Amino acid sequence: MTTPIYIGYYFNITPLQPATEILIAELGNVGFESFVETENGLEAFIQKEEWKANILDDIYILSSDEFEITFSTKEIEQVNWNKEWEKNFTPIVVDDTCGVRAPFHEKPELQYDIVIEPKMSFGTGHHETTHMMIQHLLKQDLQDKKVLDMGCGTGVLAILAEMKGAQPIDAIDIDNWCYLNTIENVERNNCKHITAYEGDASLLLDKKYDVVIANINRNILLKDISTYANTLRTDGVLLLSGFYQEDLELITKQCKDNNLEFVECFDRNNWIAAGYRLK
């Protein structure tokens, strides 16, 4: 069997977020299969046989005025991606209560132990937004609550919701690998009440929830807050993240316009995770 040859792309990104997340999603759609986030941006890899000279032509974020993105490329030999991932993924603990780890990590003595293999999906708990959303969920009474995890990534938030007694739970992501990775991680954590869907907010027609979680990005949140509000039952809770401190006023105004009142927020390295309640 011939060892695959890979093309590596090395991106410098300013500011890093949400550009890095968007770039990963767009590159995944055109065949890139492995990613490593760095201090300055992103490394992305594609098999040479899947590569073409104009592969970046339709990557929208590269032409965006909001971010400065430069890159270089080189042809590289095959590497053991599983070993690289294992080397770079360390377990985390949130509020001494919830741990997120890989299968090869030692099982901790914590109330909630979540085991995931993120592959190319976003949501290991290392990023500030996922970490803070876990904090929000730890404070919520989720027993027998119907929950939506919108932009589920690895499914880690849906999994924690089930561990806290929520059921049933819908987990939705527009990216195919996130949808498939959520299914894998749901099975890995022996969850019985989570249903994964591939798609966007258009899937929410006629749906009703007690709690809606949406960890995406500012622009999508602003567009879909009205949809989320329409899915909430009276006194329902909306948890939002994926935006910066300077965006909180704009997000809160959009929520207020949809009868959602601000409850509280966490902040971490200028990222915000905010909670709202339907009046």
Would you write up a description of this structure?
This protein has 279 residues and is α/β, with parallel strands linked by helices. It folds into two domains: 6-84, Alpha-Beta Plaits (2-Layer Sandwich); 127-278, Vaccinia Virus protein VP39 (Rossmann fold). The chain is 27% helix and 33% strand. The strands form three sheets. It has a seven-stranded mixed sheet with strand order 10-9-8-11-12-14-13, sandwiched between helices. The chain has a four-stranded antiparallel sheet with strand order 2-3-1-4, with helices on one face. A three-stranded mixed sheet has the order 5-6-7. Helix 6 (218-231) packs parallel to helix 7 (248-256). The longest helix has 14 residues, at 218-231. It is globular. It starts with 5 loop residues before the first strand and ends with a strand.
Question: CATH top level of the largest domain?
Answer: Alpha Beta
Helix content: 25-40%
Number of strands: 14
Number of helices: 7
Shape: globular
SSE order, one letter for each helix or strand: EHEEEHEEEHEHEHEEHEHEE
CATH superfamily of the largest domain: Vaccinia Virus protein VP39
Tell me the β content.
25-35%
N→C terminal distance: 62 Å
Quick overview of this protein structure:
This protein has 279 residues and is an alpha/beta fold. It is built from 7 helices and 14 strands.
Task: Describe the protein's topology.
Blueprint: E1 6-14, H1 19-29, E2 34-37, E3 41-47, E4 68-76, H2 81-88, E5 92-94, E6 98-101, E7 112-115, H3 128-139, E8 147-150, H4 156-163, E9 169-173, H5 176-188, E10 194-198, E11 209-215, H6 218-231, E12 232-244, H7 248-256, E13 260-268, E14 271-278
Parallel strand pairs: 6-7, 8-9, 8-11, 9-10, 11-12
Antiparallel strand pairs: 1-3, 1-4, 2-3, 5-6, 12-14, 13-14
Helix pairs in contact: 6-7
